[in-house]
Amino acid sequence: MNIGQVSKATGVSLRMIRHYEGIGLMPPPDRRDNGYRDYPPRSIERLRFIANARDLGFSVDEISALLSLWDDRTRASSEVKAIALDHARDLARKAAALEAMRRTLLELVEGCSGDARPDCPILAGLAAEPVGKSVTDNTRVPN
Fold it and tell me: Domain HTH merR-type, which positions (predicted)?
């Protein structure tokens, strides 16, 4: 199977397939006599695995670890579960941080009349002295 066929079967772009090969998530395929890549059928499963893991927000390192476990048929499922649970906790932290940012932004918006006057509580709030620890830079948090 050539790279175009694999891309069409998986929905993964040619560029991303090449990228995954370059960073070691996909093994380099055999080459035909004409130099074109020749992917085995298992490549489709592996690329779908990678794409699904990316859609769930796993990092490249986490995907690499999961792929190693997937390839190891003697692995304990507890190892896979531990990675998934760690990632779920990380997603919960990020969701809480995003919600805190949303609440802060809505508070700023609530104070803005949105009329033709030049004074703007949103801009003033963005320029204000930080209060607490931020969810984005790990040093401040919104009010």
Answer: 1-69
Given a contact cutoff of 8 angstroms between Cβ atoms, the answer to whether 69 and 80 are in contact is yes
Phi then psi for residue 106, to 5 deg, are -65, -35
Taking the C-alpha atoms of residue 90 and residue 36, their distance in angstroms, rounded to an integer, is: 40
Give the global pTM: 0.76
Length of the chain: 143
pLDDT in tens, 78-101: 999 999 999 999 999 999 999 999
The residue written with tokens 């830079």 in the block is 137
Q: Return the closest-CA partner of residue 14 out of 22, 3, 25.
A: 3
The rounded Cα 58 to chain-centroid distance in angstroms is 6
Which alpha helices (H) appear in 2-74, and where do they start and end? 3-10, 14-22, 42-55, 60-71
Question: Distance (Å, rounded) from C-alpha 21 to C-alpha 132?
Answer: 43
Residues 101 and 84: their CA atoms lie apart, in Å, by 26
pLDDT tens digits for 16-40?
999 999 999 999 999 999 988 899 9
